[in-house]
Write a structure and sequence with these properties.
Blueprint: H1 2-18, E1 20-27, E2 33-39, H2 40-43, H3 47-63, H4 66-93, H5 99-120, H6 144-153
Antiparallel strand pairs: 1-2
Helix pairs in contact: 1-3, 1-5, 3-4, 3-5, 4-5
C-alpha cells in the first residue's frame, strides 16, 4: 500500500506539472494576438522535485526499517502537504483549467497517505537485507542445496554436520 500510494502520488504530481494551468490570449503588438499558456511546472516549480522525492521515498521505504523508516515517512508526509499547498495555490492562477491543480492536490494526498502508512506500518513491513537480520532463527529450506549454502553462510561445515 505504501509503495502504491507513493508511486501513484509521484505520477499525479509529474502529470500535473505537464498539464496546462493557465491560458489567455495576449496582444503581442506586431505579432497580433497570441495564445499564451503556462503549465504546472512553470507556475508551481516544486511539483517535479516533490514527485522525485516520492519516488526516492519508495526506495527508502523498501530499503530501510525501524526509526529511519518512520522519519522518512514523516518527511514524505510533509512533502505531500507541500504538494497539496502548491495545488491549492495553483487554483488562484488557474484560469479555466482547474484540473491541473486538482491533480496536484490528489498527488499530495497520496503522498501524505504513503508517508503516514509508512509511519504506521514501519515495524511490520519487510525490508531489504531482512534475511540476515536475525541469524539465530532457523528457516525451513525447501531444497537441500539451499540448506547447504545457508549452512556455509552461517559459518558451519555442512559436510561434517557441525
Amino acid at each position: 500500500m505504501v509503495v502504491a500510494a507513493l508511486v501513484l502520488g509521484a505520477a499525479a504530481l509529474w502529470g500535473s506539472s505537464r498539464l496546462t494551468w493557465f491560458a489567455e490570449d495576449r496582444d503581442a503588438g506586431v505579432r497580433g494576438i497570441v495564445h499564451y499558456t503556462e503549465n504546472g511546472a512553470q507556475l508551481a516549480g516544486s511539483l517535479v522535485p516533490l514527485a522525485l522525492l516520492a519516488l526516492a521515498g519508495v526506495a527508502g521505504m523498501v530499503a530501510t526499517g525501524g526509526w529511519f523508516r518512520r522519519v522518512l515517512g514523516g518527511l514524505l508526509a510533509l512533502g505531500g502537504i507541500a504538494a497539496c499547498w502548491a495545488g491549492i495555490d495553483g487554483f488562484g492562477h488557474a484560469s479555466g483549467f482547474p484540473f491541473g491543480p486538482l491533480v496536484a492536490v490528489l498527488g499530495g494526498i497520496l503522498m501524505v497517505a504513503g508517508g503516514l502508512l509508512g509511519i504506521k506500518g514501519a515495524a511490520g513491513m519487510p525490508r531489504l537485507g531482512a534475511r540476515y537480520a536475525a541469524p539465530g532463527t532457523k528457516r525451513v529450506a525447501r531444497d537441500p542445496d539451499v540448506e547447504l549454502w545457508e549452512a556455509l553462510s552461517e559459518g558451519q561445515d555442512p559436510t561434517t554436520g557441525r
